[in-house]
């Protein structure tokens, strides 16, 4: 028996709530939290969407519509293999269990690959050290020497300034008289 997803049903917590069957699971999560102190409903073992008050639970489990689906699979015999469905065992020379391949470690891969990493969740001093180590890793060992030469040529350490070309202003500001 197929159920229509467009069928309108009522919320087990509040009968004033009417919704499409396909929206029930999403709605139940909200109402369960809202009514957790007022109403205690038990979950049907055959269908998680069935929420039943404790006095009616035993009667529901005996007569649940979805019970027959579970019972059918529990009591049906397994399918028999025939000549059409049998096949010979497939032999191969490959055995992936014998390979001594190390497990994939994403942190190790990123640390050795040419990938730009960001220092998320670090303190400023850790971030600064991380960026310095990343520059050294990506640009090579010479990156510190080049950086030191550039800062010294600009006026010493701590006085790194941005060199920009002088260009004219796009418009002139009028002179104001005081």
Protein topology:
Layout: E1 8-10, E2 18-20, H1 24-34, E3 41-43, E4 51-53, H2 54-63, H3 67-75, H4 106-112, H5 124-139, H6 143-153
Antiparallel strand pairs: 1-2, 3-4
Protein name: CHHC U11-48K-type domain-containing protein
Region (Disordered): 134-178
Pfam family, one: zf-U11-48K
Strands side by side in the biggest sheet: 1-2
Extract low-pLDDT stretches: 158-165
Rg for CA atoms? 35 Å
Measure the end-to-end span.
89 Å
Major sheet description: 2 strands, antiparallel
Structural class: mainly alpha
Shape: flat
Tell me the helix content.
25-40%
Element string (H = helix, E = strand): EEHEEHHHHH
Q: Provide the β-strand percentage band.
A: 5-15%
Output the number of helix runs: 6
Task: Tell me about this structure.
Residues 8-35, 41-68 form the CHHC U11-48K-type domain. GO terms for molecular function: zinc ion binding. Residues 134-178 are annotated as: Disordered. It holds the Pfam family zf-U11-48K. This is CHHC U11-48K-type domain-containing protein. The protein is mainly α. The strands form two sheets. A two-stranded antiparallel ribbon has the order 1-2. Among the domains are: 1-39, no CATH class; 41-75, no CATH class; 115-151, no CATH class. The protein is flat and about 80 Å long. It contains six helices and four strands; from the N terminus they run E-E-H-E-E-H-H-H-H-H. It has helices at residues 24-34, 54-63, 67-75, 106-112, 124-139, 143-153; strands spanning 8-10, 18-20, 41-43, 51-53. The relative contact order is 0.05. The termini are far apart. Helix content is 36%, strand content 7%.
């Amino acid at each position: 028996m197929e159920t229509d997803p467009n069928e309108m049903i009522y919320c087990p917590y509040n009968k004033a709530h009417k919704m499409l069957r396909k929206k029930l699971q999403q709605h139940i999560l909200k109402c369960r939290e809202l009514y957790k102190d007022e109403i205690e409903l038990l979950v049907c073992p055959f269908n998680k969407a069935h929420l039943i008050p404790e006095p009616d639970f035993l009667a529901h489990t005996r007569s649940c519509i979805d019970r027959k689906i579970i019972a059918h699979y529990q009591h049906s015999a397994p399918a028999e293999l025939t000549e059409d469905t049998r096949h010979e065992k497939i032999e191969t020379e490959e055995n992936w269990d014998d390979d001594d391949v190390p497990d994939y470690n994403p942190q190790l891969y990123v640390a050795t690959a040419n990938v730009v990493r960001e220092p998320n969740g670090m303190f400023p001093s850790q971030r600064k050290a991380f960026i310095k180590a990343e520059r050294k890793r990506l640009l090579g060992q010479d990156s510190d020497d080049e950086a030191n030469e550039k800062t010294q040529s600009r006026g010493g350490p701590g006085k790194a300034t941005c060199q920009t070309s002088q260009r004219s202003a796009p418009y002139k500001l009028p002179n104001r008289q005081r």
